[in-house]
Each structure stands twice: as structure tokens, then as C-alpha cells.
Amino acid sequence: MTLAVETTPAPPEPAAAPQAARDGLCTARVEIRLDGGWHPVCDVAQLTPGRGVAVLLPDGRQAAVFLDRTGGVYAIGNQDPFTGAWVLSRGLLGRVGAAGRPFVASPLLKQRFDLTTGSCLDDDTVSVPAYSVRTR
């Protein structure tokens, strides 16, 4: 699924999806911070826990937006740097280490990318863009 982005800046808030939005009681928007401010990309209701969606950013880039099973919302670049394919939004979510760092595993070659930093957990020399995310 690829969604278009509106470009209305808004003030900052936390990245966790509000419980009421996760329960379907209201519509909360996911926003990504870009150079020009905060940009709405989709409704929290459009996200499935444990899965991702691809969104089109105003400058033509793609981001992969994820809702993990604890309600955390994350966004990273959607392009797999190992293959060049725009597929990270279709990857599998997981957690690694004692701290439970969230990651997505590419659906193609299975490299894991940290959802908070964009760093590849399997190759320290590779990363994807990581975006600040909030819900409102």
C-alpha cells in the first residue's frame, strides 16, 4: 500500500499511538518530521500491529511506517540498500537484545534494520534513513 502525504506542519508530540486510536475509538494521524516540519502520512487506523506500509513523501522519497505490537510507531527509508528494491515496508518486525531494540528484517535478503536509528544490525557500514515520528 502506498499513500500520498499532506504537507501541513504541526507541533511535536510523542511517537506512541494513543490507546484510543489503537482501540479504534478515534482517528489519530501519524506524522513524520522532514526538513520543512511535520508531515501527516497516514491514520494510525491504517496500520496493522506488526506490519508496515509504504508512504510517499513530499519530495518523492518513500518511507516505511510501522506500528509494532506494543503500540510504537516508527519510520525508516523504504529502500533496501542491499538490493535497491523498495520493500522494507513488507519486512518482518522483531526485537533484539536485552533492551528489545525494534527492527525490521528485509523481506528479500533478511538483513535487519534498527527502527530507531536505521542502522543495519548485520553490517555496521550500511544504514537507511530513520525519521522522527509522532501521532496526533
From TrEMBL:
Keywords linked to the UniProt accession: Nitrate assimilation, Oxidoreductase
Sequence ranges assigned to domain Rieske-like [2Fe-2S] in this UniProt record: 38-135
Record Gene3D superfamilies: Rieske [2Fe-2S] iron-sulphur domain
Protein name, entry field: Nitrite reductase small subunit NirD
Region (Disordered): 1-20
